[in-house]
Amino acid sequence: MNYITISVWQLGLAALLILINLGISIALRLGLERSLAIASVRMVVQLLLVGYVLEWIFALNNPILVVGISLFMASVAALAAINRTARRFARMFWSSFISILSTTFCLTSLVVIGILQVRPWYDPQYFIPLLGMVMGNALSGVSLGLDRFLEGLVSRQPEIETLLSLGATRWEAARGSIRDALRTGMLPTINSMMVVGLVSLPGMMTGQILAGADPLDAVRYQITIFFAIAAGTALATIIVVLLSFRSLFSSSHQLRLDRLQKK
Question: Can you tell me the distance from the alpha carbon of 176 to that of 170, in angstroms, rounded to the nearest whole number?
Answer without folding.
Answer: 11
